[in-house]
Specification:
The protein has 63 residues and is mainly alpha-helical. Helix content is 92%, strand content 0%. The protein is built from 2 helices and no strands. The longest helix is centred in the last third of the chain and has 33 residues.
């Protein structure tokens, strides 16, 4: 994936993860909450990966 698509997918996963956590908390479902936390963390990692790719591409373009 490219840097932009990584960041978009990451943000989508962050939002979905937060929603799952909220539903899990409201329903008293610890498993759903945990899955939401994992999905949110995955999203943060995707966003970070996109930022790294962007920086690398910028550095390569400057050389």
């Amino acid at each position: 994936m490219g840097s932009t698509s990584d960041k978009i997918s990451g943000k989508a996963n962050e939002v979905a993860g937060k929603a799952k956590q909220a539903v899990g908390k409201a329903a008293g479902d610890g498993e759903m909450r945990a899955k939401g936390m994992v999905q949110e963390a995955k999203g943060r990692a995707q966003v970070a990966s996109g930022k790294v790719k962007e920086k690398i591409k910028g550095a390569v373009d400057r050389t």
